[in-house]
Amino acid sequence: MGYVPQASLENLKKYSYKGVDKSVISRYVLNPFWTWFVTLWPLTVAPNTITLMGLTIVFINFFTMLYYDPLYLTVKGGAEGPPNWIYFTWAFGLFAYQSLDAIDGKQARRTGMAGPLGEMFDHGCDALNTTLEVVLAAHALNLGRSWWTVASQIATLANFYLTTWEEYHTGQLYLGHFSGPVEGILMIVVIYLISGFCGPSFWDQRLFTVTRLQHIPAVQKLPNLPLNEAFMVFGALGLGFNILSSYSNVRFAMKLAGKPRIRPLVLLLPFVVAASLQISWLAAPTYHNNDIIHSPNFVPFLCAWGLQFAHQVGRMILAHVTNTPFPCWDWLWVWSAVGALDANLPHILGRPPVIQASMKNTTIFVWLTLILSFLVYARFVILVINDITNYLGIACFTVRKKGEDGVWRTKDFKA
């Protein structure tokens, strides 16, 4: 039983990756390093293996956070978090992830394994990493369990969705002069390093106080936000710029193709629907201190949200590489809608929630949501990998190809 429609499998052979990266840092600093770094890897190592190694490092960072702060207690004025040296490991891990994520494509071209499977696998790992880094970065910024962390999740996922939506309509991955995969990641690395040296409480200081600008008359008219909240405002401005930039690129592509220029905007609604369901669930009126954001249920809730998002954008990328219609519906919305509706019953009908009537029941339901989201996404990943590898006669984690005689052979590399 496959996932990709049989009639669309032929389009896999027509797919070719196209990308544009206008980052100055990427061109003159990182790319020379990546070009050297990839030469250290044997040609027998599959590109997807390198990608998976990078994601594994991020998971190790995430689990160290849970080990040293199992209930995610870093709330403003709350309990202590992990020791400061942990943030240095997060910085190293994220930079390692960025490097491995960058060279997997180079390794694919070196080994002749470039194709739609690598595109799917790379973007799938990026989608998972997005939520993990939101949790870690919020921890390092001392935002903890708060609406600021939720806002960070929304902005980060929205940026990723926009990039995928843009790639679907333009046929190429576009990274501007300032992009999340390059400058955005480097900014988070710097945040980890500062938290390692100064501690997360450093980010509670006021922006103009730290920069010694509070005495300038023009500056005094502006709110003196804490550094962490100022960073969130900067992220919101970046999101607004990316929205305009992405739509400009899509509009230009639609104009060249002679297609409607407004219709692609409708395909942004699936993200709005998905995010609205999660926000309405979190914003439900507190019943018997049953509050997800300010409880240990917050991290599993965000992880479930991240897995559902990975499933959503994974289907978008699959539609791109198979040239099939844009996916607009996800049945996981039904489960999230049930959770949101149940939590809001006190506000809607003036009666207690049916499922989430206590903190214990809420915890069970949130963890069931996480498990269901994981199973749905895992099924998607397994079936898509099977469909692509079987049709193209390739392996996912080894440099092998099926010959015309049906025998799998390791690729014969020439010096």
List keywords for this structure.
diacylglycerol cholinephosphotransferase, 16 helices, mainly alpha, single chain, two-stranded antiparallel sheet, transmembrane helix, two-stranded parallel sheet, CDP-OH_P_trans, membrane, CHOPT, 415 residues
Explain what the structure shows.
With 415 residues, this protein is mainly α. It has one domain (6-410). It has helices at 11-14, 24-38, 47-68, 85-111, 116-140, 147-170, 180-198, 207-210, 217-220, 227-257, 263-266, 269-282, 298-322, 332-343, 345-348, 359-392, and strands spanning 19-21, 173-175, 400-402, 408-410. A hairpin with a 5-residue loop joins strand 3 and strand 4. Helix 5 (116-140) runs antiparallel to helix 6 and helix 13 packs parallel to helix 16 (359-392).
How far the N terminus sits from the C terminus, by CA atoms, comes to 41 Å
Return the average pLDDT rounded to an integer: 88
Poorly predicted sequence stretches spanning 5 or more consecutive residues: 74-79
What class, by secondary structure content?
mainly alpha
**Number of structural units classed as domains:** 1
Shape: globular
Which band does the percent of strand residues land in?
under 5%
The side-by-side strand order for the widest beta sheet comes to: 1-2
Q: What is the succession of H and E elements? A: HEHHHHHEHHHHHHHHHHEE
Fraction of residues in H or I helices? 55-70%
Q: What is the count of DSSP helices, taking H or I runs of 4+ residues?
A: 16
Q: For the CA atoms, what is the radius of gyration?
A: 22 Å
Q: What profile does the largest beta sheet have?
A: 2 strands, parallel
Oligomer: single chain
Number of strands: 4
